[in-house]
Amino acid sequence: MAVAWFLSFLVICNSLHSCAVSASVSTRPISVNIGCAFSLNSTIGKVVKIAIDAATEDINSSPRVLRGTLLKLRVQEDTKASRFQAVIETMKLMESEAVAVIGAETATTAHVVSHIANELNVPLLSVSATDPTMSPLQYPFFVLTAQSDLFQMAAIAAILNHYKWREVIAIYSDDDDGRNSITTLGEKVAEDYGKITYRAALKPDASEDDITSMLIQVRSEASRVIVVHVPIAFGSLVFDVAQVLNMTGNGYVWIATSWLSTLLDTENRLPIETHDKFLGVLTLRMHSQDSNLKRAFVSRWRNLSSSEGSHDLPGLNVYGLYAYDTVWLVARALDAFFKDGGNITFTKYEKLYKRVERFSSFRALKFFDGGKLLLKKIEQTNMTGITGPLSFTSDRFLLNPAFEVLNAVGNGYRRIGYWSNYSGLSIVPPEALHQKEANITVSSQQLSTVIWPGDTKETPLGWVFPSGGREFVFGVPNRVYYRELLSRIDESKMFIGFCVDVFRAALNLLPYPVSYKLEPFGDGKTNPSPTDLVRQVRADVYDGAIGDIAITTARTTMADFTQPFIQSGIAFVAPIRKLSPSMWSFLRPFTPQMWGVSASFFLFVGAVIWVLEHRVNDQFRGPPKKQVVTTLWFIFSTLFTAQKEKVLSTLGRFVVIVWLLVVFIINNSYTASLSSILTAEKLSYRWRVNATDGSLRIGYQRGSFLRHYMTDEYRIDKKLLVPLNSLEEIDKAFADGPENGGISAYVDERPYVELFLSTRCYLTIIDEDFTTFGWGFAFKRGSPLAVDISTAILQLSETGELQRIQDKWLASKACNSLGAKLQVNRLRLRGFLGLFIICGASCLLAVFVHFVLLIRQFRHYYSGHRRSSSRISFLGILQMFLLFLDQKQEVKIRRKRRRLLQGVSNAADD
Known about the structure:
The protein has 910 residues and is of the alpha/beta class. Helices cover 45% and strands 16% of the residues. The protein has five domains: 31-147 and 291-356 and 365-390, Rossmann fold, CATH 3.40.50.2300; 149-286 and 401-444, Response regulator (Rossmann fold), CATH 3.40.50.2300; 472-565 and 776-810, D-Maltodextrin-Binding Protein, domain 2 (3-Layer(aba) Sandwich); 585-681; 698-775, no CATH class. The strands form eight sheets. An eight-stranded mixed beta sheet has the order 7-6-8-9-10-15-16-17, with helices on both faces. Strands 25, 26, 27, 28, 29 and 30 form a six-stranded mixed beta sheet that branches. The chain has a five-stranded parallel beta sheet with strand order 2-1-3-4-5, with helices on both faces. Strand 15 (402-409) and strand 16 form a beta hairpin. Helix 2 (43-60) packs parallel to helix 14 and helix 21 packs across helix 22 (624-637). The protein starts with a helix and ends with a helix. It is a multi-pass membrane protein.
């Protein structure tokens, strides 16, 4: 009995284990339903339907994909492009227990149906609802298996930045597809300091009259760069009307989103007139990598489309490629789903039933129990399809988004480059650049040559002054003094001066006419604040500001500035005070180091001359005292070229020539410096002191940015800064002095200071701060005039016209000698170091050559004594060498001659 009970227990345990194992293993069904929710008569829908059918057939014919399970495609009824009907038909597909629905052709449909998909846990996959706001946080069961418009708009912004177009007009359909994408475009353009100047919204069912009215308004705008983001259904109609309004010719830039490339790919037989209206238009297309899989699918496309039984066979567009891959994505996710124990079961969704209790048509909707697991497998799928590698990022975007940039020409288009978020614009396919380090710089961005509207290769300016438009109004400071810069003629609105001449010369270089008028800014009694004028530009009171406006950090946050047309800086001015002469003034030209090195070289060169001349020159011989005095006298007399001693040796003459050059330069430098010191005026400046010094007061031009600059940069107390309104006030403040409420110094921008000092000889510049400040013209944010006039200013500078205008108005008139130098610099050793090195090297070289020759001569002298005497000790040789050095070279030569004569006479006797 015990054995029987034990065997029964084992059988029961084994059966329980088998049940447990079978419960954890998925049972693959014979078939699985997937839905296809596209409008079968739309440009996208008819291509997507063929591609999905082909993918379903390929998957079912391969037993290795779903391992015996077949995909059954449930297709919705044709919605005739009705968005409401598209929502209803998609819901009907979910009633058929579809585990996934491929559809939501438009963003409007996707927004509605995604809420239902969330409730039923049915993944909704789309290749065409590319709305960038479809967030996986809000719509967790919506999966975009194509490129989001987030990246398409980034590509368009990159194109705009590549061609330096800062203003753009957007034409779009006023629905979820259009609004959200154009909002994203505005954000992307703003990253490169551009903006959408006009948003032309069209009703989703816009008529030709609506489009005409809209384009007439667009034509009146200044920008000629137009982005068109509309449904394919009436995108062509927009260009029909634009062609009638002569807006597709020279000067215009049209950028169509992917709807145009889809139209050109799908419609094989476009009318001839269509080619003209699309000529030069740029469009984008989702990029799909070239591969054997893709080429094979493209080659079989005609057979696939023929099987549909339609005589009007559609061409293969990129949505068909992505739809084909999407079906394979679902199949691979289902295979992983089954491997992980997933089961295809649907249950009655009680919460939904309570909500739709009175609507019997919704009672067939069921909750997909394995929906979350299938969604997870879809997100984790990593495959290679006919479009290339397909996987998702953490934000559920396709990895490595990329677009092709196309240029419509003739009866089709030509590819001019690519865009990817990895490398930006390039003429090389993105997959090739992924193997290299990311490099998105201005210089790396490239596109091939474009044929623009009007059949021209010249890049359009992108902006014109529209005919019939209003005049530009520019504010001009109504200056009271420094009228050479700006001067209002009487009470009129006519201005003359340096700044106005530069502005008019720049306008003359623009390739288009600009109608404008100048408005005075200020009361005419005090100089207005340039900062206040720039604020008026920001507030749209003026289109720009023309005048002596320094480009500062604070002002650049309010407006766009041109290239500086004059470099500025800060100069400090103070009264001149005579320097009291001193009994030691003659020592001031040289620094102590300079005096020390100069004296040392006098002695060094004198010693060298003595060494070179001692054996050949009687004037450098005799008693030691006489030789020292002679050498010192000779070397110091070279200062005045009054030396009476002659130099006989060649090496000595070489050294004297070099030394005389050194003396000449030092002598003249000393004379010029001493003359300047004895006649110059000492500058009275004590402005860089602590703020506790109550006697220090510095004046500045009222309304200038220098008040904040002095307090921030130099930490000068605000109480010590005195605002002044006129030149007369400045003169009076200097006359009063700081003791009587006046000023010790005055600070202003360099151009002002030069004009101010031209008639005031009692003042001079005491210090300068060469800042990066310059004067430029201010314009409203995003105004293309800022860029174009900057280019014109550079042209004026290159041709010399800018300097001519500056010389005309700002040339110095007087007092350009006393205040020309900030201070007299003493002559320092560093400025003459090279000269002393040359002199020292020359002396050492001469001494070296001299001693080499001496040693050779001594060898002959020593050999003669050695034959006539016994062995000589080292001490004897040294004594002999010293005696040889002291001998005059002529004695040695005379002895040599005597020996030669004796030898000749002895030979004659023999």
